[in-house]
Amino acid sequence: MKTAAIIGGGVIGGGWAARFLLNGWDVRVFDPDPQAERKISEVLANARRSLPSLYDKMLPAEGVLSFHDDMADAVAGTSWIQESVPEQLDLKHKIYAQIQKHAPKDAILGSSTSGFRASQLQDGALNPGQIIVAHPFNPVYLLPLVELVPSPQTPASVTERATSLLTSIGMKPLVIRKEIDAHIADRLLEAVWREGLWLIKDGICTTEELDDSIRYGFGLRWAQMGLFETYRIAGGEAGMKHFMAQFGPALKWPWTKLMDVPEFTEELVDLIASQSDAQSGHLSIRELERLRDDNLVGMMRALKKSGSGAGGLITAHEAMLPDPEPVDLPVTVSRRIPQSWTDYNGHMNEANYTEASSQATDRFMEMIGCDAAYIASGRSYFTVENHIRFLNELHEGDELTITTQVLKAEGKKMHLFHRLTGPDGKLAATVETLLLHMDTNARATSLPSEEVSAMLTAYADAHAALSLPEGAGRHVGQ
Ligand SMILES: NC(=O)C1=CN([C@@H]2O[C@H](COP(=O)(O)OP(=O)(O)OC[C@H]3O[C@@H](n4cnc5c(N)ncnc54)[C@H](O)[C@@H]3O)[C@@H](O)[C@H]2O)C=CC1
Ligand SMILES: C[N+](C)(C)CC(=O)CC(=O)[O-]
């Protein structure tokens, strides 16, 4: 029942297609470009290797992608239609007239427009209330922000539905309270871009030096704290007021040329294009995309640990994803192998088997009530011994399932056996692990609470009927 139409499948439409597909939606693309299918399949390949790497849980099964020459076929029965045609208002109006002739009345029609206001887009439309600005950021499949801009004519119910739907595909809808040309983020980006063009035109720096001034410095700060939280810290202990008092007056000095636009002469365009070629021309666009995506995944996974910004959002989205179907043993991990877990031998690195089994142990601890609240109360389990058997290779993008069997639960001891299975249910590894219950304040072993003990014993009793797994109790050199 979850079907989206992508109208215009270029850089941004392709990214939207990947975001919807990898979150389990069927996607229909309408784009007259004969190369659209090839381009989208390349974007999709990059999305498949990066987006699942953000999650420690499986995303829903991928939806079905289809291409359509007929607008009526593309939009019939859809609940979300995303327009991403070039940034020309008359073209967007023409497309809306075609879409709205055939689209379900209650489908949401989001526009990727970087600069037009929702009321400009709605002007002359058959069903204006259906149209809303949904402005994403490239790469749409990885970056969560989407500026959601209603006009005064947009019913609140449309904005609310759009918010909940975009949240369900892992995005961060930022509802803009008052429509304005270029929303919020593109105003900031344009200001930086315009200033950058001046600095290059005036021979102050090259494209590479300008990029260095961002990526070695404030770019790193912005990804996790934005502008104002960063500046609050820059005010020192005296805080934001002190920061404003110190740097506010500088705004009166003519540091910037923000209101002038350098003329786009052939000379300026050639200067920037040749500097950009010198900087990055040795890599293809797809290679650059993969480099960008790997870096984004690494940064977002780091933010996931602290719960900051985009990282906290991934954790919240993960909590909305369905748990795996129960089998005779509890499934404690169901995820894909991220690119970052593979090594120079072209397969999953040994260290990451420990990481995966540690995720399985953490999940099993939660299942018996040893959750964050229990741990905060000063009680937990510590691992004291592991034995790993590597039986089959695992590769980037493979589905990984871990089941957990309790071999013994006695007093402070919890003895578990994790089976790691890869594609086609093939056993890839086993990890036998012994844990002891601890008083984390005393840093000494202790007995678990009655509740935890009862839940653990229930699993142990159920698993006692199962035969001892092959390989249990094995030691190195046996
Ligand atoms: N490129 C970027 O960084 C961002 C662009 N946007 C916005 O997204 C929209 C699309 O931009 P891009 O994807 O960059 O452009 P693009 O040029 O990569 O893609 C536009 C696509 O629309 C298709 N198209 C042209 N006429 C069409 C029609 N009549 N019906 C269906 N498809 C048609 C083209 O064949 C092309 O594949 C614009 O409104 C832009 O402002 C938003 C965020 C970022
Ligand atoms: C350059 N741009 C205005 C098309 C940029 C955007 O709209 C957002 C982005 O992804 O940078």
UniProtKB/TrEMBL annotation:
Cellular component, GO, one term: cytoplasm
Pfam families: 3HCDH, 3HCDH_N, 4HBT_2
EC number: 1.1.1.108
Segments crossing the lipid bilayer: none
Gene3D superfamilies xrefs: Hotdog Thioesterase, N-(1-d-carboxylethyl)-l-norvaline Dehydrogenase, domain 2, NAD(P)-binding Rossmann-like Domain
Family indicated by similarity: Belongs to the 3-hydroxyacyl-CoA dehydrogenase family. L-carnitine dehydrogenase subfamily.
UniProt name for this protein: L-carnitine dehydrogenase
